Amino acid sequence: KPGKMYRLNISSCLAQDEVWAAKGHEVAFEQFELSDWNVPALPAVKPSGNVSLSDTDGMIIASGAGFSYTFDSKTGALVSMEIGGEKMLESPLKLNLWRAPISNELDGWNSYSSSTALANARTGYGAVGHSMVLATIYYSAGLDNLYFKPTEVNAREVDGTVYVDVRELVLFGASEQQLDAYIFGRSTAGIESMYSYRIDADGSITIHHKLNPQGEMPAWFPRIGVAMELAGSLTNVEWYGRGPEASYPDRKTGYRIGIYKSTVDEMYEPYAIPQDYGLRMDNRWVRFTNEAGKG
Q1: How far apart are CA 154 and CA 157, in angstroms?
Q2: At residue 194, what are phi and psi to the nearest 5 degrees?
Q3: What count of other Cβ atoms lies within 10 Å of the Cβ of residue 14?
Q4: Given Cys at both, which of 172, 225, 237, 274 links 142, Cβ 3.0 to 4.6 Å?
Q5: CA atoms of 10 and 24, how far apart (whole Å)
Q6: Which residues contact 71 (CB under 8 A, 6 or more apart)?
Q7: Cβ-count burial of 184 within 10 angstroms (0-12 exposed, 13-18 middle, 19+ buried)?
Q8: What CA–CA distance (Å, rounded) separates 87 from 70?
Q9: Average pLDDT for 132-158
């Protein structure tokens, strides 16, 4: 069927009781992707209806049947999503390059596996203090202190669909400064961040996000993506990917691809110091919903 994915699942289980496990205990499994069976989905049909566009009190509002999305007209940030009268966002969607350094980044373990990181430690980022520690490179590069400078925000409605284009400069560890009576600015490394939002009549949002690095980049980034805080009521999580436990790029084949459910609280791991946790690999989609199933 178009748009469907097919896999062959093979499982090896004990045929009889053993001292260490009971009959039926799974010893090994494998999933084989039947890629030749996968047929691309049919082109999506444009949703019926229209999305209206307005600019009120410094806010760009795209609204349709049962939804309203709000963008800050100065920054272009998606600051509010309301669906069925319920708030979905607590904080805007923004570029994120940071997370707290984990234990492997607070000693010399990972720095030895990156010759670029060592070069940066000697010639620029991380050249002071614990120069062989990746966390020092992160802090020295200013990744924990981003300055967002919006440069362009455009919104338009075309044939019942709303488009919002945003361009911003994201500077590492710096902000604009008045250098003298005539020059305003500061030379620093950063990233040009560009968003293209498409809002259709069914309330779906398609986001294309492009990054263009400017200047000297650190060897590694702790994160590259976007972050936003969802409403506290969206505690139920469902995803199509590997699960049900957490998986990571170097440790994922022991987890089947399927559709799984959990909650935000169940996915939390109370580590004594920051560590990666909660990641699920190879996701096709993810849903966050409240107790009423809305999200």
Answers
A1: 11
A2: -125, 130
A3: 14
A4: 172
A5: 14
A6: 59, 60, 61, 62, 77, 78, 79, 153, 155, 164, 166, 197
A7: exposed
A8: 11
A9: 89
Phi, psi values for residue 37, rounded to 5°: -85, -20
**pLDDT of res. 44:** 80
pTM: predicted TM-score of the whole model, two decimal places? 0.85
Q: What is the mean pLDDT of residues 156-165?
A: 96
Angle 134-141/115-123 helices, nearest 10 degrees? 50
Mean of the pLDDT values across residues 145-156? 94
Let me know: does 86 contact 290? Beta carbons within 8 Å. Answer: yes
Of 151, 167, 175, the closest CA to residue 211 belongs to 167
Regarding predicted confidence, which is higher, 150 or 116? 150
For residue 280, the SS3 value is coil
Q: Which of 288, 206, 230 is nearest to 91 (CA)?
A: 230
What is the spatial distance between Cα 280 and Cα 278, in angstroms, rounded to a whole number?
7
List b or e across 33-57, with b for residues whose CB sees 16 or more CB atoms inside 10 angstroms.
eeeeeeeeeeeeeebeeebebeeee
pLDDT of residue 177: 56
């967002």: which residue's tokens?
Answer: 148
